[in-house]
Amino acid sequence: MKLTVVGYWGGYPHVDGATSMYVIEKDGFMLVVDVGSASLAKFQKYKKVKDIDAVLISHYHTDHIADIGVLQHALLINHYVTGDDKKVPIYGHIENERQFQELNHDFTEAVAYDPNQVLKLGPFTIRFIKTKHSVPCYGMKITDGDTTIVYTADSAYMDDWIDFSRHADLLITDCNFYQKQKASDAGHMTSEEGAYIAKEADVKELLLSHLPQFGDQSLLVKEAQSIFQGPIHLASEGLVWEGIDKLK
Is residue 209 in some structural domain? Predict the structure, then answer.
């Protein structure tokens, strides 16, 4: 299972950056998780739009869905140019019905996932957990049977993250705040909170993402290292993870 980080900023794109988008691949199947601001322009540096097999949305805040419309137009133009009639399914929850329906377009189809049920997409099995956020949002546990990635999406700290993340190979955690800041009030986590989950859940590696535009982001890793002793990575555009000791 291969993960490529495309967008990783929280709230809005930092200079020359993009907000949340992660690409997960296995056996020729490409799953895109979240489609944030400016992410599609960045995505095309690494992958081809026509090769997307499915999109999975955690929630409907703009920094996670802003480029859905851009993706829809890219697929439409690809159809005009190539005649490709492929319709890409976009999976989202239906607790925000209007925004869910906007996932439909000429070459995209809105598909509801039930967060209480297991979702199977290509080689992946996905389980959900409702996060602690200002709108309905779902974190995900994505596995191919051999490797497991947990993605918190946007969430304040919850004890439930520990059991949900137990023994994951990689935990991608919301890290929108530095230690000692009041992240919970904003529905996000600090470097320390993400590291605590990683430690208590005995995950193999931690990836700090959904980063703040302010401050020195390298401090986030130092703060997390005071709690979690395993490998800790700071999200960056184009970062590729294929398992422990295979970070590019």
Answer: no
